[in-house]
Specification:
The structure is a single chain. Helix content is 21%, strand content 21%. By secondary structure, it is an alpha+beta fold. Strands 1, 2, 5, 6, 7, 8, 11 and 12 form an eight-stranded mixed β-sheet that branches. Helix 2 packs across helix 3, helix 4 runs parallel beside helix 6 and helix 6 packs across helix 7.
Length: 354
């Protein structure tokens, strides 16, 4: 029911006759501050990201949350509309995660024993935290040396052409690719935008994590990765036929589908590589104003706190709060499990071993 239709209209009472008494509360219209669907909800750390755009109409999300597949024949035949849609999607960052997993072998089990399995959301590090900061993300094409789908059924590199070439296969801009895709008469075709991150010093962070856990006397196998979800957007004219895993995916990934996977939305952590100089040679500028070193200084003890307690799940700001409120109980500055929970008086015990 709309706000307008929810207003109850009653006859105006005559001045000389008070309205009749009723013990029932009088219904009222919704308050003026009620949330509207047109308002973009803001979450601290995410700027003005419109989260509702991640899964458009007639789209499905893969089970691993990496790929959004959108069935839209109109976009597949209209390069201008497709360009606007891709611009909207490129304005959304991938969900960047830090995954830290510790396991050890067991004499009684064929499967490794999980000691901890931590996930930290790094996405805010790709987003400017102040309206005065210009964004760093941009849209580009896959490098010519990269093997990818360029309108066919197999991956290829871009053809080698001279700078003055005007060949119809020499597509140098995204609008050119959009027109080529829209004019493709194939019954099964798809255009893909891939969101990626760049210029984050993952080697530094991995080294710091390994050193930190070694200081806790952890002796197990450590796996550290930086996966992304919501990283691939596919627009296709392959009719899903009402089935999530039916005709659509079969047609999309089948041998007869013409695939265009040349568009990239790049979300840099900084405007230069870890050892490089920033735009204009003015020094490296980080998108969120926070360097790798500064971020690690903020989260280091929270990672230790979660790992030594065998956490299997997300490490959040609540862990940072707990460490600040109760540093001794959280084991800040203490070695392994044997000394990590009781204020530092216990013996450090190796863990991550059978």
């Amino acid at each position: 029911m709309s706000e307008k239709s929810s207003i109850l209209r009653r006859p105006v009472a005559q001045p000389e006759e008070p309205p009749p008494y009723s013990s029932e509360p009088t219904p009222s219209s919704p308050p003026a501050t009620s949330t509207s669907h047109s308002v973009v909800e803001s979450i601290p750390g995410y700027g003005n990201i419109n989260f509702s755009n991640y899964i458009p109409e007639n789209a499905t999300l893969s089970d691993d949350h990496t790929t959004v597949t959108c069935y839209n024949p109109r976009l597949c035949s209209n390069p201008v509309a497709l360009g606007k849609f891709l611009e909207e999607q490129a304005a959304l960052p991938p969900k960047l995660l830090l995954h830290v997993r510790g396991t050890h072998s067991s004499n009684t089990s064929m499967s490794p024993i999980i000691d901890f399995n931590l996930t930290i959301n790094l996405t805010p590090l790709l987003i400017p935290q102040s309206p005065s900061q210009p964004p760093l993300h941009y849209t580009t094409l896959a490098p010519s040396t990269e093997e990818t789908y360029r309108g066919g059924t197999t991956k290829t590199r871009a053809p080698t052409t001279s700078p003055s070439s005007t060949s119809s296969t020499d597509l140098r801009t995204l609008p050119q690719w959009l027109h080529k895709f829209a004019s493709d008469p194939s019954k099964h075709k798809s255009f893909t935008l891939i969101r990626i991150f760049s210029n984050l010093n993952t080697s530094y962070l991995e080294g710091q994590i390994r050193n930190l856990l070694a200081s806790t006397a952890y002796r197990g196998h450590l796996s550290i990765s930086f996966p992304t979800t919501y990283s691939t957007v596919i627009i296709t004219n392959a009719n899903p036929g009402g089935s999530l895993f039916g005709v659509n995916l079969m047609a999309l990934f089948g041998g007869g589908t013409k695939r265009y996977e040349v568009a990239r939305a790049v979300w840099p952590f900084a405007d230069a590589a870890p050892e490089g100089r920033g735009i204009g040679g003015q020094g490296r500028r980080c998108a969120a104003g926070l360097s790798e070193e500064a971020w690690w200084e903020t989260w280091r003890e929270a990672v230790r706190f979660a790992a030594v307690r065998g956490r299997r799940g997300a490490v959040t700001v609540e862990d940072r709060v707990e460490v600040k409120m109760n540093p001794m109980g959280a084991g800040v500055g203490v070695g392994g499990r044997g000394g990590g929970g009781g204020g530092g008086g216990g013996k450090v015990v190796e863990w991550g071993v059978e």
